Amino acid sequence: MAGIYVGSTSSYSGKNLFILGLGLWFKSRGYSVGYMKPVGAMPIEKNGRMGDEDAFFVQDVLGLSQDPAEVTPVLVTQDFKARAFAAPCEGLRELCVEAYEKLSEDKDIMLVGGSGSMYSGRYCDVDGVSLVKRLGIHAVIIDRFDKELNYDYLLVLGEALGDRLAGVIINDVPQGAMEEIEGMIAPLLERHGVKVLGILPRDPLLGAIKVADLAERMGGRIITAHHKADRVVEDFLIGTMQVENFLTHFRRRRNAAIIVGGDRSDVQLVALEGDAPCLILTGNLYPNDIILTRAEVLEIPMVVVREDTFSVAKKMEDILSRHKLRDKVKIQQGAQLVSSRLDLEQLRKTLGI
């Protein structure tokens, strides 16, 4: 039975994307797939049982229904952290091993999801590096492009894991950075013995969010076209400039929410006529009746929020970069991206299956 620990250099790097893509790929080839997430940082209750939100989601997609206490033996609640900070943690790593051995019975391959980065959980002895070594499985590390890559971190992990590192994935790479990564960074890693399994280009759909979810995350209120709240937002544009300049930028941005003051009816009208997926009106200011009527006619949701434009833009950036993979269409897109862009046959050979 083979095992893969899917870790990353930072949070929100695409671990669930890869786990689901890999799990569906192996299942399509007749393998029996198991899953666990040893450390869960997002505790929720489902059907009367406490578990990790991501773990519940991954199990649902892969058609698994194991006991959440075994799937996530270390659940990081406030009480857990208080105990862990007050006194040394004992036995947690062995608890993970016991759960892994039970969940892996009759499975061809086990997928083990990391939490945070590879060194998250060090304070209680359940960090990714320690678990990979203790479980005796291979690791795949994801590094998500965020202005630059954490190539030093990847080299350190290569030294720390040795032969246990099956390879790394470079994720969410914009087109402008692809040449440098393919021509310089990937060869550097390979020279140091760090196998690059694939480079995934940035896909706006995977970071997209529905207007209804966006309004909820923003703490805002949808005031028009409620029936179109399932429209998808992939990007955002701040409408503080003059109309002429705004129009130039607006034409270049596809599926971009427009963040604009509630008193800027000129920009609002341009955005509505240009079929923006939604308008986010800042400062808790409502538009005039003409704008409201036009938004209803064109069926474009408008969301009113309390914060100023700068604060909303910062929050919007965080939401789009950290929005969870949940929609069916995203899962299908992510699975296709994983199977088409990664060297999964090489990974299978490394695992010996």
Describe this structure in words.
- By secondary structure, this protein is α/β, with parallel strands linked by helices.
- It has two domains: 2-205 and 324-343, Rossmann fold, CATH 3.40.50; 209-322, HprK N-terminal domain-like (Udp-n-acetylmuramoylalanyl-d-glutamate--2,6- Diaminopimelate Ligase, Chain: A, domain 1, 3-Layer(aba) Sandwich).
- Helices cover 44% and strands 21% of the residues.
- The chain is built from 15 helices and 17 strands.
- It has helices at residues 15-28, 53-62, 68-71, 78-86, 92-103, 128-135, 151-161, 175-191, 211-218, 243-250, 265-273, 289-298, 309-322, 328-341, 344-351; strands spanning 2-8, 33-36, 39-40, 43-46, 49-52, 74-75, 109-113, 138-144, 165-173, 196-201, 209-210, 221-222, 232-233, 235-238, 256-261, 279-282, 302-304.
- The strands form five sheets. It has a six-stranded parallel sheet with strand order 2-7-1-8-9-10, with helices on both faces. Strands 12-17-16-15-14 form a five-stranded mixed sheet, sandwiched between helices. A two-stranded parallel sheet has the order 3-6.
- The longest helix is centred in the middle third of the chain and has 17 residues, at 175-191.
* Shape call: globular
Secondary structure class reads alpha/beta
Please give the radius of gyration in angstroms. 23 Å
CATH class of the largest domain: Alpha Beta
Low-confidence stretches: none
CATH superfamily of the largest domain: P-loop containing nucleotide triphosphate hydrolases
How many individual β-strands? 17
Give the overall average pLDDT. Answer: 90
Task: Report the sheet-strand fraction.
Answer: 15-25%
Please, how many helices? Answer: 15
Helix content: 40-55%
Head-to-tail CA distance between termini: 8 Å
Widest β-sheet, arrangement of strands: 2-7-1-8-9-10
Largest sheet: 6 strands, parallel
The assigned CATH architecture of the largest domain is 3-Layer(aba) Sandwich
CATH topology (level 3) name of the largest domain: Rossmann fold
Number of domains: 2
